[in-house]
Queue: 2 jobs
Job 1
Amino acid sequence: MMTKFWLLLIPVLWLAFPVKVAPQNATPASVYEHRADHDPNGIGKFYMGREIAHVMGHTGASWLERAERIAEEKPDDVIKNFKLRPTDAVADIGAGTGYFTFRISPVVKQGKVFAVDIQPEMLAMMEQRKKELKADNVVTVQGTEQDVKLPEASVDLAFMVDAYHEFSYPREMMQSLVKSLKPEGRVVLIEYRGEDAAVQIKRVHKMTVAQVRKELEAVGLKWKETKNFLPYQHFIVFEKAKV
Ligand SMILES: C[S@@+](CC[C@H](N)C(=O)[O-])C[C@H]1O[C@@H](n2cnc3c(N)ncnc32)[C@H](O)[C@@H]1O
């Protein structure tokens, strides 16, 4: 008698306390936040507490090739610290004019360099330079704001120099980048030091190590080391986490 009474109560309890099951196609809550009150150098869109910067337009291309960059950003030391093998497939994400791409091309003679950018004008400049230098192992790739557009499991090392802070969809970009990495693939992020007041760069163009780690670990990358050989920038190395 008592058991039957409890059975009768089940539909009543179900109506009073429905189990909330998300529909299969539910859109996950946005990882981005928009604020009206923000830094004029940023786009007013925030990711994990950081404001995203405006994309540097192609009309500023000559600034990327400025002579002072050699002393400021030490490209040869950067490339030495990538520890590349001649057969590696490297991806330069947000490659711009190819400042790093064309320095890496001869280092990976039997491999290749994917030079990814979203601005067709930047890709055209790189295509022109590729012809001039006969850099046949450079592959220019038109990416989108959310996708690196690289083949799955094809990249040994992906790197970003002064670019990640302006990705307007950093979560989606990094998720697609992780898919493009080989199982032992590495990611290196080079950004101006956010913790260092002596680095005279606009706030939204700098990043702290803590922020970089928070954002890249959120897509499943594993922090390996932070190297301090650059005058103004961090050199932060991540590995693809084993699954
Ligand atoms: C400041 S430039 C740096 C270029 C280059 N890495 C260098 O160090 O000379 C940043 C570049 O990132 C590109 N960029 C911005 N958002 C991007 C995205 N979601 N995917 C690929 N490239 C992007 C821009 O078009 C621009 O060419």
Job 2
Amino acid sequence: MTTRRDLLKFSALATATAAMSTFSATAALTGVARASRLLDILILGGTGFTGPFQVQYALARGHKVTLFNRGKRPSPEWPGEVEQLHGDRDTGDLKALEGRKWDVCIDNPTSLPFWVRDAGKVLQGNVGHYLFISTISVYADGSKPGITEDAALAPYKGSDAMAETRDTLMADVANLYGPLKALSEAEAWKQFGERTTIVRPGYIVGPRDETDRFTYWPHRIAQGGEILVPGDGNDPVQIIDGRDLGEWVVRLAEDRSFGTFNACGPDYVLGTDAMVQGCHAVTGGPATFTHVPTEFLEKREIGFPIWVPASHPMYGGYGAVSNARAIEAGLTFRPLATTVADLLAWFRGLPEERQAKLRAGPTREDEAAVLKAWHEARPG
Ligand SMILES: NC(=O)c1ccc[n+]([C@@H]2O[C@H](COP(=O)([O-])OP(=O)(O)OC[C@H]3O[C@@H](n4cnc5c(N)ncnc54)[C@H](OP(=O)(O)O)[C@@H]3O)[C@@H](O)[C@H]2O)c1
């Protein structure tokens, strides 16, 4: 539960951070010490959501960075030298990686076992460490709090996992994403043995997050008025800033930390109330918050992003996944206020039409309709 002390902490940090936010995804990071052991790092992907934060941090630590992707996205202006290799993992075109050696390979975008198998064929023996970005969706049972890395994984119910493609995955993402990530993990262990690291994030949020799932909250709260808070405000929420994740992944590589880690934040229990109050401390402005019980929302089939009721029969544990092992291995979390201030600074720099239509969360009209119904139904 969030205490009054937490809320005061958010508020003080928020005031300071909102005033200072000068976020840029690709500026040189300042105040980052050079690593004591410099690495040649191969990053598969690198130009999407979290990859650029790995690049930014790796360069600041003094490492050499090579990216491998299709070159379909505009390459950011990196704050240092970055080698760019091109190929296509959908078609198995990995020629650009042949005959090269790196200390570590960070595999960001993979959800298909054959992508790992093919990477293994080219990179086995040529990389000293393989670090795979997975997900907490791999767990078979997400209903209870405290899921640890040793929990059972979701079974694959299709006929041939190696034949699954991005098209087949997207056609049934709800049933296939977790199991195919789990089988990709298994393939990673098979290809790279004990020099494998599996990182399982929950919701990744902050600047560059194009899903708008967490963004819904600061954006909506900045608009002000009466804001619907789902549940009683105590359901726990877990998020991780993409920069905390990206930077920690580089440190895992530096430390040669092998094994499997949940990557969820923060390092305290963040209730839904504390999340919205933390956002409000950054946005300021006139806003009131109205709790609407989970059952009332369920009857109206309205959902809110990031929030999962602790009573949810399938995902009730998603706000309370164990992050003890990751914290032990050096995962740190910037304050919520920093994430919110930087996220808003980034989001407000997007084209107006992009900002006008959020990709997650209810519309203002749907929210207002439920609030109206709740006020009418509420006794007294
Ligand atoms: N977002 C969340 O909340 C969340 C939660 C849990 C786990 N995750 C996992 O976190 C990871 C996040 O990835 P990210 O977007 O941050 O990674 P990223 O490295 O920043 O971006 C994805 C990269 O993959 C490259 N790519 C895409 N298709 C390719 C292909 N066929 N061949 C070669 N390269 C290709 C893209 O470049 P091109 O398009 O130019 O090829 C891009 O560089 C994913 O594994 C996701 O499952 C996300």
